[in-house]
Amino acid sequence: MRRDFLRAATLTAAAAAVPRAGEAQPAPATAKRPVTLADWGSFHVGGKEHVVSGQPVREVLFSPGGVPAKVDPNGTYLIGGMYAQYMVPEPARGRFPLLMWHGGGLTGVTWENTPDGREGWQHFFLRRGWPVYVSDAVERGRSGWTMLPEATGGQPVFLTLDNPYERFRIGDGPGSYARKTTLPGNQFPADDASYRNFVRQCVPRFTTTDALTLDAYLALLDRVGPSVVMAHSQAGLFGWRAAQERADKVRALVLVEPATVGDPAKVAALKDVPVLMIYGDYIAQDARWPTIRANGIRFAEAVRAAGGTVDVVDLPERGIKGNSHMVMMDRNGDEVAALVQDWLAAKGLWA
Amino acid sequence: MRRDFLRAATLTAAAAAVPRAGEAQPAPATAKRPVTLADWGSFHVGGKEHVVSGQPVREVLFSPGGVPAKVDPNGTYLIGGMYAQYMVPEPARGRFPLLMWHGGGLTGVTWENTPDGREGWQHFFLRRGWPVYVSDAVERGRSGWTMLPEATGGQPVFLTLDNPYERFRIGDGPGSYARKTTLPGNQFPADDASYRNFVRQCVPRFTTTDALTLDAYLALLDRVGPSVVMAHSQAGLFGWRAAQERADKVRALVLVEPATVGDPAKVAALKDVPVLMIYGDYIAQDARWPTIRANGIRFAEAVRAAGGTVDVVDLPERGIKGNSHMVMMDRNGDEVAALVQDWLAAKGLWA
């Protein structure tokens, strides 16, 4: 009853605040429930030095009308650091902090809002008493990026407007963005203004920085201490691997549409880490996701065979239908969040 | 009395939480005063389309062990959007939202923390009842970047470890980073761990995207409505220019070490916008800052001649000494924030 009321309230706020490039916008709706924070802030962790030499000195005019400065590109750079922002609610009910790790080509904004202006999963879990840490993976967002291909292994990939529409199981196959035809019953807010808001959240994606990124996530766990890790898509890799490297610090692993698996040689390390894997809708008809999911389920079976606990949830089988790859942004995303919340509570991680 | 108590408390927290790459860290100190938020969230504004054609299709393996996908780089991109995060305290005392615009080569993190782990100016003003909006300028942080030099006018500049130390009036001139010698009495937290935290906040700096960035700031003002704008360094340009373009929406302009001035042809547009300009220490002996400040003061005089109100504060003349270019991060940064707060209150913008 209460949940239905809240959903109606947030949808009303969303309808009033759908942003669109270049248009005047109302201020965000403020008729929401307040939250009290015991603490909030941000920091960077991890990273390493990288030395460049033999490059010419440049003169740079940083601002028009300013005074030029000589910039020597030779020297030592810090690369591979990672940004995290934390909010600690009062009272706290989660027994450990909840670390939210976004997927490829995106930043922590994934968890902060939905493209149609509703509250994101950051709000959902903070409102339920979880200390929430939202980070930007290495080379993305506020973690910065290195601009030195030789330090990061290559150039990132930057996506056109139509790519996520067709690859994230929003549109009904190739050419669907041009046709503006979504998969039937799709819950992603795919109206033009909302979809463009989503694309504005996308950033160039490095495909060659997994080792740097894993190191930074381990540094985050070492700083924060025992935590629940929630990872989406590409970050499935980092969630699995981080739990394998820091089984004492990952008290539970929630994988939302994980794109990859962990290290098959270290499945035994996961035996005391409860894992929840969640997959959305339209997978059977997709070109890539049947294989991605099958790999995930096979890995889950290997973890179970080594004594671990992995719960795999197929959302349509549970009656939760229409989910794209961006589950947390879908119109029914809070139903999925509630399922995660219930699972965490059942594991004794919330009081 | 109360302020002294708070400062002592935050310094203690900072001493317990100085992060350093690769080292285990304690969780952030939580013995701080709670704050109640009526609302918080984030969004993107602005941006435009950019079309690419004639490029070959690539096959990309997004994640190791994943399934390759074809990526067509041709098509329409959204570029120049801007990210903003807002926090609305309860009760609110600022009469308008406070928009915090960071300087070049940085992101909104500038306002969120100090490199030695104290609370940033975001905390300072939020705790005094200002609804605070912290944004990442175009092509930086969570605003993403375009990876298309032809769309943004060129390659950005990425700084080595020693560059800000010597250019931001922390070290005592060329070679000071290697010597680890700061300007006498310098208030920037320049111990090795803190300084590296600051460098981890730095991101590649585009010097060719001023028009895109100004457009995005105007879109932000159009969305949020009448606001107080606080701008640092490079963003001095955007603060002045945005106030000239949206004099009805910029109710006051606080410029912290502005690196550039506004449009000399439009000084009359500023006659009803009260402006505060703040300059730190060590300027006379710097290679570039005497000229930068003289340009700023000359522009202020032109604005006054056109009927405007500009207060210029030289911090050392006020007895606030030792400030680097990163005033908000200096150990005495809260003294400067208090000066800003008093000025805003005197202008009737806080109740």
TrEMBL record, chains A, B:
<dbReference type="InterPro" id="IPR006311">
    <property type="entry name" value="TAT_signal"/>
</dbReference>
<dbReference type="InterPro" id="IPR050228">
    <property type="entry name" value="Carboxylesterase_BioH"/>
</dbReference>
<protein>
    <recommendedName>
        <fullName>Alpha/beta hydrolase family protein</fullName>
    </recommendedName>
</protein>
<dbReference type="InterPro" id="IPR029058">
    <property type="entry name" value="AB_hydrolase_fold"/>
</dbReference>
